[in-house]
TrEMBL record:
Keywords: Disulfide bond, Glycosyltransferase, NAD, NADP, Nucleotidyltransferase, Signal, Transferase. It catalyses: L-arginyl-[protein] + NAD(+) = N(omega)-(ADP-D-ribosyl)-L-arginyl-[protein] + nicotinamide + H(+). The lineage of its organism: Eukaryota, Metazoa, Chordata, Craniata, Vertebrata. This is NAD(P)(+)--arginine ADP-ribosyltransferase. GO terms for molecular function: NAD+ poly-ADP-ribosyltransferase activity; NAD+-protein-arginine ADP-ribosyltransferase activity; nucleotidyltransferase activity. Belongs to the Arg-specific ADP-ribosyltransferase family.
Length: 231
């Protein structure tokens, strides 16, 4: 269940956390590993504001767009997701990405404010030790797509995902054409089926995968919800 995840979903404290991010944690955006990524993401956000009809994305601010740009670029993607997956004990202290985590979580929630359930696909070269009917979380932000053929992301483990908390990034991503739906760390899933039979995978159009996990949304689990408001 990814118990070491930074899984704050800010339910009940979104406004107060925004104040904290713009105050206590604002320096994260201007120093350390996040500095250059945030600076580059500002230019990306400005371009998105010029190019897109933001009425389609009502509620998103420039900071939300910057967070999406920073995440979907390659500069800090790996470091950020590793810290999110393992940073529970450092959240509120030495965790380096409070601001990015907040704005990205908030953006995903705004993009799916009606809890629409997306049916998406994910590829990776990681191997997982899980069983059918087990409840799991990705534990970090997880990129999924409407496109099943993004082979560059991997073939060892594939996921057919029903996500009801994920947000469709559409044209807001740095990378065009990926049809990305971003899943937050706190969403839980039931593993409905694990498929290794090649004939069955071929019938589903995913014969390139070594194993296919079929996941169904099972609600939320946020161990750190509003933690920073309680310390």
């Amino acid at each position: 269940m990814a118990e070491e995840s930074v899984d704050d979903m800010y339910f009940g404290c979104n406004y107060l956390m925004h104040e904290e991010v713009m105050g206590r944690y604002s320096e994260e955006m201007y120093k350390g590993p996040f500095k250059e990524a945030w600076k580059e993401a500002e230019e990306c956000a400005n371009i998105k504001i010029e190019e897109q009809n933001l009425k389609e994305y009502e509620g998103l601010t420039k900071a939300h767009l910057q967070a999406i740009c920073a995440y979907t670029d390659d500069n800090i993607y790996t470091m950020f997701n590793n810290d999110c997956r393992n940073g529970k004990k450092s959240y509120g202290s030495s965790f380096q990405f409070h601001s990015l985590h907040f704005f990205l979580t908030s953006a995903v929630q705004i993009l799916n404010k009606h809890y629409f359930c997306h049916h998406t696909f994910r590829r990776t070269n990681h191997i997982f030790n899980v069983k059918e009917n087990e409840t799991v979380r990705f534990g970090s932000f997880a990129s999924t797509s409407y496109n099943r053929t993004l082979y560059d992301f991997g073939i060892k483990s594939c996921f057919e995902v029903e996500t009801c908390a994920g947000g469709f990034l559409n044209k807001l991503s740095v990378v065009d054409g990926e049809e990305e739906v971003l899943i937050p760390p706190y969403e839980m899933f039931i593993i409905r089926e694990i498929i290794v039979d090649k004939n069955k995978m071929k019938a589903l159009g995913v014969e390139s995968c070594e194993v296919l996990y079929v996941l169904k949304s099972a609600g939320y689990k946020s161990n750190l919800n509003c933690k920073l408001m309680r310390q």
